[in-house]
Amino acid sequence: MNNTLLPRPVLSAARLKRHRPLSIIAASLATALTAGCSNPGEDVRVTLCKDMTLVQLGAGANPNWTQATTETPGYEDAVVRLRWSNAGDDGQARCYYPYNAVEDTAQQIADPLTAYATSPSKMTINGRTLSGQALADVVAQAMQHQGKQLLDSAKKLIEQ
């Protein structure tokens, strides 16, 4: 009988055993990437605005988000509006995202926020405006916070 027509296994059983930990780690990281988000259905602009607000409120802040709305007024900046209460103190923030689309698409009709940048051009928190370098610093700190949360989630998943 001619063996050349029979399919050969891509990995032998011994090689498969050696690669199993890698596949488990890859699957765990993929799950952590999606599970690491505080609210997977929440738009990235809302999540970033919340994280920037946490940076501005300082260590130990644990706000109870009472409102998170978005406005997409055509070619003007989209606005994410947040309201919270934190140990009896109420506050509000707004993050402004510039219009960033080259042309109108069906995706923008389905999800208007996709026409806007994912990095804000301005933020106001409790009446104080941040822009320029101050805004860039807050965005960087918020992104570091998000990265740390993601790594912590991945680590917990791998240790299980």
Describe this protein's structure:
The chain has about 160 residues and is of the alpha+beta class. It is built from four helices and five strands. The protein has one domain. The protein is globular.
Please outline what is shown here.
This protein has 160 residues and is an alpha+beta fold.
Structural class per helix/strand content? alpha+beta
What is the molecular shape? globular
What percentage of residues falls in helices of 4 or more residues?
Answer: 40-55%
User: Please, what is the average pLDDT?
Assistant: 82
How many E-type strands? 5
Strand content: 15-25%
> What's the Cα radius of gyration?
22 Å
For the biggest β-sheet, the strand order reads 1-2-3-4-5
- Summarize the main sheet: 5 strands, antiparallel
Number of helices: 4
Order of helices and strands: HHEEEHEEH
In the residues, how many domains can be counted? 1
Low-confidence runs: 19-37
Distance between the termini: 48 Å
Spell out the key features of this protein:
single chain, 160 residues, five-stranded antiparallel beta sheet, 4 helices
List the helices and strands and how they pair.
Elements: H1 13-35, H2 44-57, E1 64-71, E2 78-86, E3 89-97, H3 106-110, E4 122-125, E5 128-130, H4 132-159
Antiparallel strand pairs: 1-2, 2-3, 3-4, 4-5
Helix pairs in contact: 1-4, 2-4
